[in-house]
Amino acid sequence: MSLELVVQQALNGISFGALLFILAAGLSLIFGMMDVVNLAHGAFYMLGAYVALQVVQITGQFWIAIVVAPVVLAAVGFVIEPLLLRRLRGRHLDQVLLTIGVGFVIVDLIGLYWGREVRTLPFPPGFDRSIDIGGSAYPTYRLFVIAFAVLLAGTLYWIHRRTAMGALIRAGVDDAQMLSALGVDTDRLFAITFAVGAGLAGLAGVVAAPAFGIQPGMDVDALIFSLIVVVVGGLGTLNGAAAGAALVGPAETFGKVLFPQFALALIFAIMAVILLGRPSGLFGRIRIGR
Amino acid sequence: MAPLASIGFYLALLTFPDWSGAIEGSRYMTTILRDMTVFAIYALSLDLLVGRAGMPSLGHAAFYGSGAYAAAIASQRLATSELTVTLAAAIAVSAALALVIGLLCVRATGIFFLMLTLAFAQMVFAVAFQWTDVTGGSNGFAGIARPTFGGLETSAPEALYRLVVIVFGLVSLLIWWISRSHYGRALVGVRENERRMRALGYHTRRLKLSAFVLAGALAGVAGALSAWSFRFVSPNDAGIGRSVEAFVMVLIGGAGTLLGPIVGAGVVLYIDRVLSSAIPFSQAVLGVVFVAFVLAARQGIVGSLRAALVRVRR
Q: How many domains, chain A?
């Protein structure tokens, strides 16, 4: 591999990792609070991309889409949690199963409404060109993805550590029952958590769309990658999502270049090694393999 | 009464091509029944995990798919259509794979087990999709030769149908026998309270791993049968959709019962084949049905009917 290629692939890997962080943060947040692995997360991500497509078609503005899609998805999450998940409170496995069905419905309705072919979302104005990095042209949009994810991570950390909402979330992750006993409306907190998680999935969908395309099956890819990230990084913590994304993103990208036929198998090998050596993931507090 | 009825029902199923000739569309119905039966084997194999041992695997398609590929590739590479060879290849590959994935997953329980099986099964999908030289990649693997057994050909639809139904009978017997055996009860014990079983001296992890391998091997058998039925295998047969399908069959039908997965297979195949040609959103319907069962009838059709029957008798 030439140096230019290494630089280019490293940037690709980092930008893919940045996207994975946005995606996994939502999954991890919901899990941390509600003990539910939301298997509709990939469907939420996909819906975010399609809502963005629709908004861009109507308004022609990517920057409106990047606001609208997460809001729409947060609204979807805010409805689904009380409507469906709350009925099964305490039955975590059944809640997870429920999200499978929800994902099925969302993905099929997307196909019905928007069609089942590959779509593209143009790069937003200002980020539609390439700049010279290390002697080769590199698309600026991918750099934007990196910067955006870093900014988002900073914001999320700030909310998590410094705001009242963050304190509630941290308390909920530690002991939701105790929080409820202390008089906090956990029903509302859970609905908000689920909404924020869904919104983050939607946000990842918009951000991903110009660079990674919009196509059937993107929901599964997103779900699997976010699961791998949280297993590797550790479930339920922001650090875990960040560490997992930072590891999995570049590993996938370089794997694709070095072993084209077994790129994904490499990722799973990493996951297997981490599971055997550190069952709670890099930064997790919950042991996945007991 | 129940055993007699099952035997009668089974014999009717086995001889369906012989007595249904007068019914309109009986050839199509034979095909549908054959595919239903393949799915039923697949669902029964998953129920060994979900229903008996309480291991919610969401990656069962890995073994179904690998069985299908193994049967297809063995027959192509070894230039044989001998059932004993190709079916053995399917069983060996899917069981070996289940052993490897199982070793990594059985340490986890509940949601974590579900997550890990889902993720590792996707690895099998990725290999099927990316390892083009062997698997044909995204185009899949077409023109699979139907098996011969001794001198018997199964290229005729009726012969293949009979093979599928006979295998289904054997698998059902095996599952029925397991459910009554010491081993099957130990699995239920693990489901109900793993720590207590361990305290009683059972090697629970080994029990779970053995169930995982057995279920994987049986799913491989179902996969091989599907490869011969459709004469086509694609990465989708190892994909998450196929895994979810099995789970839906077990849950809708009724986990932990012998009849439930079979009924569930019928429902899912009906939605997949019949309903999907009538409406363009059959998968959404499947999703809604699944959500409804999780919310309102977690024991599935058979489980709910049984509970209702008990209530009536009282």
A: 1
